[in-house]
Amino acid sequence: MKQIKESGAGLKLSRRLSALAEWVPQGARFADIGTDHALLPVFLALNGKISYAVAGDIHAGPVEAAKRQVAEAGLEQTVSVRLGDGMAVLQPGEVDTVTIAGMGGSLMARILDQANDRLNGVRTLILSPHVAEDAVRRWLVQHRFVLDKEMLLEEDGVIYTLMRAFLTPDPTEAESLNSALYDEKLLAPAIAKLPSVLLYEMGPLLLRRPTEAFHRKWEEEIAKRERVILQLSHATAPEAAEKAREWEEDVREIREVLACLPAEKPSSN
């Protein structure tokens, strides 16, 4: 993937936004929640990949910047820029594809939870939480969305998680697909039963195709947790020792998983 992608009109996207753009279905009616300057919907519209877009942001400054971006591109009839909280900017059935990026997973899950009927008609979710990815994966499973892509992408020294999921309307089919996806025997016989918490934290598709970035991300996570353990070891509260033991068990399990995965595989998803 190129470092920067550029449309015919000269609009440039970061590597992360470029990757998200590639996952948008052709002809989508698209919403970018937390759009900032509306770079993604404008890029997609200029390249003929979407038929319509809503660019929403909770802050007035980015909304004004987004409106200027849309006007300069001559896309006022295609991209509607709106000020509002989360998916409150949408009407039920207005779009079929939603992207949310650049925020924590817990906030992202809350935005999706609060969407209610504004999710009507949405078949594709393209998400990039920067922490608490497990919260997003759990929300997807609980609402009949099934992951079909996961990717780790490094940009400016930060490893980002990207994921795409499709709605499976039939509850029985959705449950069956997600049960297979989050199979606790995924790493058998090396690990007879993988804790479900790690499947949600580490990503079921990422675990199936681990890359160098995956190993590096989780080595960094181990280092963070070991710093917490060290801090807890100096605490005098009785519960600190128990908490330290829990974190030590987390680290042990993560190390066990990493040890039975290939050190490196091709990074394409």
TrEMBL record:
Q: Which UniProt keywords apply?
A: Methyltransferase, Transferase
* Superkingdom: Bacteria
Keyword Methyltransferase annotated: yes
Question: Which InterPro entries has this protein been placed in?
Answer: SAM-dependent_MTases_sf, TrmK
User: Its GO biological process terms?
Assistant: methylation
A GO molecular function for this record? tRNA (adenine(22)-N1)-methyltransferase activity
- Supply the name of the protein: SAM-dependent methyltransferase
The organism's taxonomic lineage, starting at the top: Bacteria, Bacillati, Bacillota, Bacilli, Bacillales
